[in-house]
Specification:
186 residues; globular
Length: 186
Amino acid sequence: MDILSIIIIAIGLSMDSFAVSITNGLTIKELNAKGILLISFSLAFFQALMPLIGWFAGIGIEKHIKEYDHWIAFLLLTFIGVKMIYEGLKKNDAEKDTELKILTLIGQSFATSIDAFAVGISFAFLNLSIITPVLIIGLITFVVSIIGLQLGKCFGKKIGKSVEIFGGMVLIGIGLKILIEHLYFQ
């Protein structure tokens, strides 16, 4: 597999992280450079780690995880989305969180990277070296996440209080997209 194909795969894998980053940029009241780097690193780390794990898992686990990976992603993203909607409805803008809770960030990072696990398994089937794809996937996700956070931060100031509700709906939408793609288009 050539580098261009790996870059295209990495861009595709990073789109869920991009959407989550926009959501985080919209909902975090005081998003600073440290927060942007932490969130981007977490999303990129999981996005790079999952194909590595998938590559090591190889053929044996593919048929088992492939049956329900979309349900795991859907349930995690829906849970986080519903929680965000609930929090958005009960809080005033002045009470909004200034930071993303670490468990929420880990949940987002894991949920958006489940598809990357299957990609890692496919890399094992193709007998590819995993180092280059992991580095490319991680780097692209990191950059795409920074862009998403900045876009969300920019628009969040203009939108106001409803951003947390909107962000929750986006996460639920991503979960539904993953579920529908796996149930009806594979």
